[in-house]
Design a protein that fits this description.
The complex is a heterodimer of chains A (280) and B (445).
Chain A (H helix, E strand, L loop, with lengths): L6 E12 L2 E12 L3 E5 L6 H8 L7 E7 L5 E3 L5 H8 L1 E3 L12 H7 L2 H7 L4 H4 L3 H21 L14 H14 L4 E5 L7 H18 L2 E5 L3 H7 L2 E6 L2 E6 L1 H6 L1 H8 L3 H12 L1
Parallel strand pairs in A: 3-8, 3-9, 6-7, 7-8
Antiparallel strand pairs in A: 1-2, 1-4, 4-5, 9-10
Chain B lengths: L14 H23 L1 E6 L2 E6 L1 H36 L5 H17 L8 H26 L8 H18 L3 H20 L7 H21 L1 H4 L31 H5 L5 H27 L2 H11 L1 H6 L4 H27 L9 H14 L4 H17 L7 H15 L33
Antiparallel strand pairs in B: 1-2
Chain lengths: 280, 445
């Protein structure tokens, strides 16, 4: 076991260009094991692009994305196809616009997420077709695991309903539970609090803190809701126009004039003046 | 997604609006009637003469006006009830009704040949329906579960049929050896088709599979040396039952023992009819059993997850390549088995049996039956294959009836006759509901 707080994700000189548009420009940051790292920035700053590079949906133009598992195994994410990043490196993501299997039941969504383990247990469908006891046991275990997460997100009674018919906030929680059922080492959440009311955001913060505490899982978070970010994150990386403008603890970042100017669109000196005014 | 698309009933239109609407329809009818009904070419001894039939145009316009008006009046008073009824239709069947109906259908199919009205013609239609049921169940894996719109399914059917015909004619292999071989060959070609289309979805996939179906047909048509081209392959040997032959003893000396001789009963062509009927019933039931069980396995769940959202599948670590290829291969292998049976039953095959219209019929069976519904597919196969065969003397109206049925079903039951999806695994802690899978054509690319 590697010591806690070692570097889990090391992003070095990441650049992503789409034709003439540079979405990410020479971005470097690290995320430590056991931390909740937040990636913030104004709209269009390139946060989701960073996620897409990390999870293999985009291939970065330049850069190295080194991911180290707790076991010490290293992966170079920029060289792996998307599904292998999830399968082998165990970096599991959620989506800004929720992507549930809407026509399937809530429980099925969570069982599908345990696909890898179950496929192996079903002997690549052979043992399953023969209805062998080993597969039946594996499936029961998968359902129990799903049930644990349903209890956690408060959707146990909705287990047999279509996932697409759930209210929005429940869909958000279900997507996180589904990602957890896939057994992540690093959980990447793309705006999990978007569209949630204040009470739901608080519940989400609690859920994320619990996940981190009880399951040894590190979280990388894109978020606009500053109350959530400031409340739960250990480390904040601020992006603007594809570049990192601030990197540090939440309180430091909040006081950084560059961050304020990026968010408020004011000139540097105004921001500095504002900062002075606040302190004075 | 709601269970039935929430379409608003049309606003209760005023009478004047309906009359205007009917008038417009009548105008269109009149314009169409001018070239269609307005002239008549008379052939007489004096040569050709043109007759003008002005009244006919007026009759046509009047008929359309009245019909349209009556229809919209009826719709105005009945529409809410109709929507209500169709909305509740799927929900009224609890899931064990499906099981009961399934067993009743199986029982019915088992005793069917013994019923008094089961003459050779009836049995032959029943056998044909069962072939399409099997094909429908096979295609349902690809289209209904995995959501991959396949318009070239008949190609695998053809591959199965030709593989049996060629292997038995050239190498003397028996039906029972060729049957698994046909399945394997079907799966092989399924994977072969699968590879180039991995990145495609929806309409694009449909076009490529359509092309694949045509390629296979054209190869069969032109590879004279092997397939005998358009003349097809004749005198394909009939399958035997544990070595007992069903050949007619009147056609020449039998190879081996005849089934009738073995039982000591007189020969009758009905024995052969019974045999192939039960054979296809067995094959079809095997298909649905396999598909039903597969759906509850991780592979089957992965197919459905892929249909729902491919990107989410990838984000959970599923390899879409293997998921798609397994769906293509398994779907195609059932078509191969059905094709093998088809060749054995007909004793004659030619590329003519494997045209696009077959693919379209099978797809129509799957879509009309309701994606993913095994019983719906049986009903749709009876409707689309059984009825036209039965009413062969009304053949010229077949396409009208076919199109009419399609339009009506798509209006009233856009998800198919029986479109409901039971979860593959339940917790049983709260209320359950059946789901509607997204139609293949609408799935995101």
């Amino acid at each position: 076991m590697v010591a806690v707080n070692d570097v889990m994700l090391d992003v070095q000189h990441l650049s992503m260009r789409f034709g003439g548009l540079t979405a990410i420009d020479d971005l470097s940051f690290i995320a430590r094991r056991g931390d909740i790292t937040a990636l913030i920035g104004p709209n269009g700053a390139g946060k989701t692009t960073v996620f897409n590079c990390l999870t293999g949906f985009y291939r970065p133009s330049v850069g190295k994305l080194e991911f180290t598992q707790a076991s010490g195994r290293k992966f170079l994410l920029e060289r792996m196809p998307d599904f292998r990043i999830a399968r082998d490196a165990k970096v599991i993501r959620t989506f800004q616009n929720i992507r549930l299997f809407t026509g399937m039941s809530v429980l099925e969504n969570l069982v599908v997420a345990q696909h890898l383990r179950l496929t192996r247990a079903s002997g690549y469908a052979v043992a399953g077709l023969l209805h062998l006891a080993t597969y039946r046991k594996a499936e029961r275990r998968a359902v129990e695991h799903a049930r644990y997460w349903l209890d956690r997100i408060g959707l146990t009674t909705a287990a047999d309903l279509a996932a697409g018919n759930l209210p929005y906030g429940s869909q958000r929680r279900l997507e996180i539970a589904r990602a957890m059922c896939a057994g992540p080492e690093l959980l990447c959440l793309d705006e999990p609090a978007a569209g949630l009311n204040p009470r739901e955001s608080d519940e989400l913060s609690d859920l994320l803190l619990d996940i981190r505490r009880e399951h040894d899982i590190s979280v990388l978070l894109i978020e606009h809701d500053m109350s959530v970010v400031m409340q739960i994150s250990d480390h904040v990386v601020v992006l603007d126009h594809g570049a990192c403008i601030a990197d540090g603890a939440p309180a430091e970042v909040r006081a950084d004039p560059a961050v304020i100017s990026a968010y408020l669109g004011t000139a540097e000196e105004d921001a500095a003046a504002m900062q002075q005014g606040r302190q004075g | 997604m709601t269970r039935v698309a929430d379409r608003q009933a049309p606003p209760a239109a005023s009478l004047a609006h309906l009359v205007r609407d009917a008038g417009l329809a009548a105008l269109v009818a009149a314009l169409l009637a001018v070239p269609l009904l307005g002239f008549r070419l008379n052939v007489s001894a004096q040569g050709l003469s043109l007759e003008y039939r002005l009244p006919w145009i007026l009759y046509a316009a009047a008929a359309v006006f009245a019909g349209r008006l009556l229809l919209s009046l009826a719709a105005r008073s009945l529409w809410p009830q109709v929507r209500q009824r169709s909305r509740g239709f799927g929900a009224r069947f609890p899931s064990n009704t499906n099981v009961i109906v399934g067993w009743v259908l199986i029982g019915g199919a088992l005793v069917l040949p013994w019923l008094p009205f089961a003459d050779p013609r009836f049995l032959s239609v029943a056998t044909l329906v069962l072939i399409y049921v099997m094909l429908g169940w096979g295609l349902n894996i690809v289209v209904g579960l995995a959501g991959l719109l396949d318009l070239g399914y008949v190609a695998f059917y053809a591959i199965g049929a030709y593989s049996f015909a060629l292997l038995s004619m050239n190498f003397g292999l028996s039906f029972w050896i060729c049957l698994p071989l046909a399945g394997i060959l079907g799966a092989f070609f399924g994977i072969l088709l699968g590879f180039p289309v991995l990145r495609l979805r929806g309409d694009y996939l449909a076009i490529v599979t359509l092309g694949f179906g045509e390629i296979i047909r054209v190869i069969l048509l032109n590879w004279q040396a092997v397939t005998n081209g358009p003349d097809g392959i004749t005198d394909i040997p009939r399958p035997t039952l544990f070595g007992l032959s069903f050949e007619s003893p009147f056609r020449g000396p039998l190879h081996g023992t005849g089934f009738a001789d073995f039982l000591g009963v007189p020969y009758s062509p009905m024995q052969w009819m019974f045999f192939i009927y039960y054979l296809i019933l067995l094959l079809a039931l095997g298909t649905t059993l396999f598909a039903q069980r597969m759906r509850r396995l991780p592979t089957g769940r992965a197919w459905e997850a892929l249909r729902e959202d491919e990107i989410a599948c990838k984000s959970l670590g599923m390899n879409p390549v293997t998921v798609k290829l397994s769906a293509f291969a398994i779907g195609a292998s059932f078509a191969g088995l059905a094709g093998c049976f088809f060749a054995a039953r007909q004793g004659f095959i030619s590329p003519e049996s494997f045209t696009f219209i077959e693919s379209a019929t099978i797809l129509a069976i799957v879509v009309l039956g309701g994606m993913g519904s095994q019983i719906g597919i049986v009903l749709a196969a009876m409707l689309l294959v059984g009825l036209p065969e039965w009413f062969r003397n009304l053949a010229e109206y077949r396409m009208i009836a076919f199109g009419g049925a399609m339009v009506l079903i798509m209006i009233w039951r856009p998800g198919g006759l029986l479109s409901r999806r039971d979860p593959t695994v339940t917790l049983g802690e709260g209320p359950a509901e059946s789901m509607r899978p997204a139609p293949a054509a609408e799935s995101p690319r």
